[in-house]
Amino acid sequence: FALDPVQGKPHRIVVDVYRDDGKRAPPPQPKPAVVEESTQSASAAVGDGNDAEAQPAESVAERPFVKKITRVVIDAGHGGEDPGAKGLYGLREKELTLDIARRLASKIDRHPEMEAVLTRDGDYFLSLGNRSSLARKERGDVFISIHANAARSRSASGFELFFLSLRGSSDKMARELADKENAADLIGGIEPTEDEVLSIVFDYLQEEGMQKSAVLAESIYKRFQRDGSIRLRNVRQAGFAVLKTVEVPSVLVELGFISNQAEAKRLKSDEYRDKLARLLMESIEQYCQRVGGNGTRYHVVKDGETPWSIAERYSRTVKDLLLANNLAPDAVLRVGQKLRVP
């Protein structure tokens, strides 16, 4: 994507390069020869034990990437020419969020059943769309966007949690905060597209992501509540653009108000930052226990979709998708049909 000149910087082009974790699915409309080949390979994999000429099963090395642990995508809010909020004691939101994101990633990577992916690991601008799309490309099981709050009133304080709302914000303050965070793309020169938003809303109405996001938010809230040393504000809903990841349960956390003297002083402390990272890690661990961590994911078939287009969307092979759902290679999908994503 392109960045317009900002603060004396020239026009820039940013290229995202993603790791290829497995074989790509065939194109949406394959030639008959490809379908025939898929039929043969699927039959060989299933097998009935009566065909002496059956081909050996696909080797482990040839199989596509399969997750065995929970992948947590951690998004450090703001960055680059978008500094976010500025607070007391020289605190800047983009620096605070990156530091805590790194601490959280370090703790998650030490957990035997979890691994972390950072949307950014340096001081550079990343569009909201690229942050959420990274969660999908990395096959994230959890997406957590980390921010810090600020207000004109120095008395405002507390840790806040948000998950996506499709029906508008839960209150005026939540809407204003979402508008402020969503303006990050405008700072970086990125214009939102209405088609993108409509597509996301349509997908969310058919999938279970929002319910899991609510469970994730509740898990975090309850863990911080048990700790008892951090003032908690309510769990609320708002239309944060960065939370509109279709398949991945997502929350946005506001660690505290860097405009509040007491909270800014705590957030300046390494000990307190480490505590926040630990509580977040334990919250995610408890969420995974409730929903099964990297448990089964489903896709609801929409009009015009084929096994090839669905496999492509989730970076799976058609063969694995068919086998996971006991479907024949020539199966016709029905609108509304629920498919297991391997």
Percent strand equals 15-25%
Structural class, from secondary structure content? alpha/beta
Write down how many β-strands occur, each being a DSSP E stretch of 2 or more residues: 10
Sketch the major β-sheet.
Answer: 6 strands, mixed
Write down the CATH class of the largest domain. Answer: Alpha Beta
Can you tell me the overall shape? Answer: globular
Query: What percentage of residues falls in helices of 4 or more residues?
Result: 25-40%
| Biggest β-sheet: strands ordered side by side in the sheet | 4-3-5-8-6-7
CATH level-3 fold name of the largest domain: Aminopeptidase
Write the element-wise H/E pattern from the N-terminal end onward. Answer: EEHEHEHEEHHHHEEHHEHHE
Give the N-to-C terminal Cα separation.
31 Å
Radius of gyration: 22 Å
Please identify which CATH superfamily of the largest domain we are dealing with: Zn-dependent exopeptidases
Description:
The chain is built from 11 helices and 10 strands. The chain has 342 residues and is of the alpha/beta class. The protein has 2 domains: 222 residues, Aminopeptidase (3-Layer(aba) Sandwich), CATH 3.40.630.40; 47 residues, LysM domain (Membrane-bound Lytic Murein Transglycosylase D, Chain A), CATH 3.10.350.10. The longest helix has 22 residues. It starts with a strand and ends with a strand. About 17% of the residues have low confidence.
